[in-house]
User: What shape does this take?
Amino acid sequence: MFRNKTILITGGTGSWGRELTEAVLNEHPKEIRIFSRNEYAQVLMKRDFQLDSRLRFIIGDVRDYHAVHDACQEVDYLFHLAALKHVDVCEDQPDEALKTNVLGTENMIRASIKQRVTKVINVSTDKAVDPMNTYGLTKAIGEKLMIHANLLSDYTRFVCVRGGNVLGTSGSVVPLFMDQIRKGKEVTITHNDMTRFFLTISEAIRLLLVAAKESEGGETFVMKMKACRIADLANVLMELSGNKPASCKEIGMRPGERLDEVLISKSEVPYTRQFSEQYYMILPSSSLYGSYERYSQLHQVAFSEYHSNAGLMDKAAIAELLREGGLISE
Assistant: This one.
């Protein structure tokens, strides 16, 4: 699919971007453009990838339409990963979250259509479902903009994916817990009953590639994800650390946080299909986007809502997921 094609990855120096770049390089692209505003992160990534001639690094901000427009020139596939994604940061500075997550997404859409990009894959989040914080609200609007963009072009197709918490990525709880344990500090948990969806970085990239290869435009792909109580995750890490056991301390929920997350809401269930054993697919609720005949044989999902407080992993399953993610050794 990507052979001799040009791929643009916004926010490409992050954990998802690095892993996606490595995966796409194996499919022999003509060029991969890494678009981000972090010069130092680009320098480090360039070194890590041993100055691969197929990589082109572009300093730019998705808030700047002209920079985005130029980066999209002759691009075949665009993966839109750039976002402000820390809940507390977006709560403190909602205007900045709006500029990046909404206006930046709008810039990507306009530039993609203008430059006749074949397909755009937008990365969203479980927090966009029935959102209660600024981050979720901005990503929910971003999803709506992306799906609607399919009505604006007869050529460029737009699709979304929803992810959960990727184990071990920057700012996630696992590195925080591991650092606290290593230093013998108390492990800070916001609420003992809090649950979250988790996936490994390799699973996240497979989700992106499935959406890129299988979609026809307008779909939202959701992976079946494992979920657990954050307190159980912390306890597993403490038990496996080999260090002096640390204690847990409940510090209270932060502004914008909720106890459980939702990946598919009750209102979306009627439009959700079982795409495969591993993936669900949400179709647009309006017939304006087409009939999607190729999906007519897919079964509607049986659940009433897909949330993180059902079917929770036990400690053994949590440990296995951490091993799969390369965060603990055997």
